[in-house]
Amino acid sequence: MAFPSLLVLLSLARLGLGSIFTTPTQVPASKKYDFIIVGAGTAGCVIAARLTEDPSVNVLLIEAGVSDNGTESATISVPLLAGSGIGTMFDWNYTSTAQSGLNGRIIPVPRGFVMGGSSSINSMIYSRGASDEYDRLADVSGDSGWSWNSLEQYRLKNEQHTPPWNNRSNVGEYNPSVHGHGPLLTGLTPTVFDADKRVIQTTVDNGAEYPFNLDFNSGNGLGFGWLQTTVGHSARSTSSSAYLHPALNSRSNLDLLLHTQVTRLVSTSGKLTFRGVQVAQTATAPQYSFNATKEVILSAGTVGTPQLLMLSGIGPSHQLKNVGVTPLLDLEDVGANLQDQSIVILQWEVTGTTLSPFLNNATAFQDALAQYAFNKTGIAAGNTVVNTIGFLRLPSNSTLLKAGDPAAGPNAPHFQFSFLVSLQSFHRFAPTTGNWMSVSIVVQSPTSRGSLNLTSSSAFVHPTINPEYYTTAFDIGTAIQAFKTLRGFLTTPAWDGFVIEPFSTVAALNTDAEIETYIRTFANSLDHPTSTAKISKITEKGGVVGPTLLVKGATGLRIVDASILPSSPAGFPQAEVYIVAERAADLIKSAWSLS
């Protein structure tokens, strides 16, 4: 177990501010909490901060993971190091089952094991997705309050656009009117590369086929444009840095318990009333219990939330019995409907300047980190690897759409291209010289659905995670079509004289069968699992939560995280989760007449 940082220890002593505990025994036995939030991740930090705006409310936030300001925190805070926290102490280090659609490979499933959750270890991309995504959420839930237009106040309440560290002008690269005044900081790249310019030039030369999109956070889900990331003031901005730390530093009605896992929900005043939690720090450590007078709010994520529900007797009865858990509430969709987006990356050697030489020069890399440590400037201080992105749909006459369109609507994409100004590869061997550009392909509206299941009645044993990547004809067919579209995109005039040749394995991709083999051999997870506790209409038998995110059939229990989304969003989930959490906080306040 990681030791608490000096900052954590100091915060314990500050009078009148939120307390940070590192063991359950430090929580005062006499303290009463109105709400207990499970998981200090993307959603949990938002809920904790917003509920404690009312000084009469006391909140206990429980996080299984570690502090985000300890000795290793640079790994997750320095923009250049985005992604470096995966596979470390900041990651739950889950893995999938052997994936039949990926030649039987077992794939890492990163999830944040740290304050801020996955917002602390992801690729920092902030893209709200198409307006159709939210309108689908409203339709599936039967609540128009989840529609794009109804959520405008929460979009603006969540984030604000900030300039890059070098104050590079980004006029014409985003739409200021769709950004707000919230605590989460977002921005654009401080450094524009040759490949970025050519992406934008393609939209000028071939706008009908490849339209320019001024701002993907406007609700327009299609086209090519500049990518916005959660970077502000030269550092990664997370739900912890934006919401949780400011609340802890200014309020005495918020307590945080770290290094402690909730092992099950406890029924309190009635069999299906769940206002209590049981916690422990290891599988063999003592168990402790805490109760809320109003609600327990699950924000443990797409993996943690359904696992905890099932451990508590909430889920498919036959599955629970198989691992020795007594069923209390039979909800078949707990752990079902798992969706995740997969990513496959292609590489080309180019004539222009890229990040490849820098990334292959250990001395230059360390010098950049030293400069950042000194004054938070330089290449380490802003997102530079992925600056431009494109979202596209299949042709309307595509045979892949004959069985129906899985996208949320005509404004939502089927696939995505991200342009990386370096050589990114899942190959074991890759070139270490030259300038390279990589382009990732993502099926944004997959139809494959998997499941998450218990293997043990212990919370300390990971569940099985089976996303079922590329197990439908639509998913693999869309990925193949995306590769063909990308090949056409790179042969437009803007790319003349820039692309030298593809990486050897990419050069061999000429037939559909060859492309499919490449995808199944090298595709990986984009780390966007959703939908294991999906939302539905209150009148429907299926689903796990209703439109207010209360668990169906239970009392005192609500879910606020990516698990409630009905489908994998054709964008990047963290932005939608922030917006969902902002509205959820208001729903909770309204339910309990809070200010």
TrEMBL record:
Protein name: Aryl-alcohol oxidase-like protein
Superkingdom classification of source: Eukaryota
InterPro entries referenced in this protein's UniProt entry, alphabetically: FAD/NAD-bd_sf, GMC_OxRdtase, GMC_OxRdtase_N, GMC_OxRtase_C
Domain Glucose-methanol-choline oxidoreductase N-terminal: 301-315
Cofactor: FAD
One MF term in the entry's GO annotations: oxidoreductase activity, acting on CH-OH group of donors
Pfam families named in the record: GMC_oxred_C, GMC_oxred_N
Keywords: FAD, Flavoprotein, Signal
Range of residues in the leader sequence: 1-18
Residues reported to bind FAD: 114, 262, 573-574
Alphabetized PANTHER family for the sequence: CHOLINE DEHYDROGENASE, MITOCHONDRIAL (PTHR11552:SF147), GLUCOSE-METHANOL-CHOLINE GMC OXIDOREDUCTASE (PTHR11552)
Family: Belongs to the GMC oxidoreductase family.
